[in-house]
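Colleagues,

For the teaching module next term, I've prepared a clean inverse folding example: a structure given as tokens, and then the sequence designed for it. I'd like students to try predicting residues themselves before seeing the answer, so please don't circulate the second half yet.
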């Protein structure tokens, strides 16, 4: 990567990325605990059918998208950085050609 970050920028980026990852881990923990509770209520409490699968699937999709945004597409991720680099190179070529 040709971009050089200052120590302050590295610190800020590291804190932002760590905060985003911590946020996902907390989200995953809450998801697990709440869905275990809903499963217990569904299984041993109310209703004849396992209705707890519906919040599990909906919230699970949200958790998966949150994980993708944090681990794959987040600031400083490999995919995003490669895309930014490609765009930077394309813009430099266009600017140099005109």
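(Answer key — instructors only)
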């Amino acid at each position: 990567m040709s971009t050089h970050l200052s120590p302050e920028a590295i610190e800020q980026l590291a804190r932002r990325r760590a905060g985003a990852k911590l946020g996902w881990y907390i989200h995953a923990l809450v998801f697990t605990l709440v869905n275990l509770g809903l499963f217990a209520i569904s299984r041993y409490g109310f209703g004849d059918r396992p209705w707890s699968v519906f919040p599990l699937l909906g919230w699970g999709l949200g958790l998966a998208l949150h994980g993708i945004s944090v681990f794959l597409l987040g600031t400083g991720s490999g995919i995003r950085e490669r895309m930014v680099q490609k765009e930077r190179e394309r813009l430099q070529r266009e600017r140099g050609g005109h």
